[in-house]
Amino acid sequence: MKKFLFGAFVALATMISSCGSKDDKTPEPPQKTVELIGAWQMESSTIDGKPSSVSECTLKETIVFTEKTIERLSFKKRDGNCSYEKQDPLTYTLLGNTFTTKDGTTTFTITEGKLVIEGVYTDVQGNKKPSTTTYKRITEKELTALRAMEYKAPDYKKQLIGAWQMESATLDGEKLAFSECSLKDAVIFTESTVEELIFKKYDEYNCTYKKQEIKPYTISGTTITIEGKTVTFTVTETKLVIEGTGLDEQGRKRSFSYTYKKITEKELTALRAMEYKAPEKTTDPKALIGAWQIEKATFNGQPIEKEPCEDKQVDIYTANTVTNYDFGFNSNTNRCEFEKGRAVPYTASNGTITKKDDTPENFL
């Protein structure tokens, strides 16, 4: 209806003007470039004629006009502070009380030092309603203060570099139980490589790690790529959280999360000292001298179940004899007791022990 009335008004105006001199021209709307130039900060807004509530950060929104460009500083809360991300200025053309950029044409008015921009608000139901945003003119000093709030993306790689030790982990949201050794696991990031220290009881007694290949990695934002596989990470104070997905042994997709704590160079040095060193094997007969207690036994490669008290059995080697202390359980005293054997002469050569009147045995 509004469009129809506006059209009728234009037709009527044309008829009236045609009655006058044919040389008369419709005057162009006055240009307002000079009035627009400067910085304008949001003051208030309305939707459908009613005041609209805006956040503390939104009220910092600022538009900066030059003779040819428009720059918008749009603020939002990041990491607890209001900040804006720098955008490229847009060129504009001015015609009366409208300016046009590549994004469209906007209607404005300037009254008593206030800039009012008209627009259209679309609600969640898709309904369109008229809106206005009112800006106040600000000084160069005030603009400088606002520009100082530009958002600077964190240097994610700088946050990542360092040594991190395992603290906790989840699988599909469920917390995992870790052994004492797994809690020593560490990951070390340099500028371009990552190294893992994975601890286990390789000798069945002590938590140690085996040195692994140091791998290159790339980083994009908060995404790490290692050998074609990607994970995301966040660093908060002294915590590193690495998250990702992978397939389990049954081929099911699972999500995981590892939380690490940052450790010092001194703590990392202590962990590195726990590197697993495979025991040196020798067939030198001199290495036999001493006392040896049974630890485990196999037959045809299969473990032999120990008898009660058998794990206490000891063989004592001298340079040329071996004495066996054979333990057994005494039901009368309800304890393990040993019977000392006699000292048996032996010879050792090339990893073979031969006891007098006995079958040769191999040793390492």
Low-confidence stretches: 1-22
Number of strands: 33
CATH superfamily of the largest domain: Domain of unknown function DUF4822
The number of helical segments is: 5
Structural class of the helices, strands and pairings? mainly beta
CATH architecture term of the largest domain = Beta Barrel
Number of individual domains: 3
CATH fold topology of the largest domain: Lipocalin
Query: Can you give the mean pLDDT?
Result: 86
**Helix-residue proportion:** 10-25%
What fraction strand?
over 45%
What summary fits the major beta sheet?
10 strands, antiparallel
Our measurement of the CA-to-CA distance between the termini, rounded to an integer number of angstroms, reads 103 Å
* Radius of gyration from CA coordinates: 41 Å
CATH class of the largest domain: Mainly Beta
Shape: rod-shaped
InterPro entries: Lipocalin-like (IPR024311)
Domain Lipocalin-like: 36-117, 160-242, 288-360
Pfam families: Lipocalin_4
Organism: Capnocytophaga ochracea
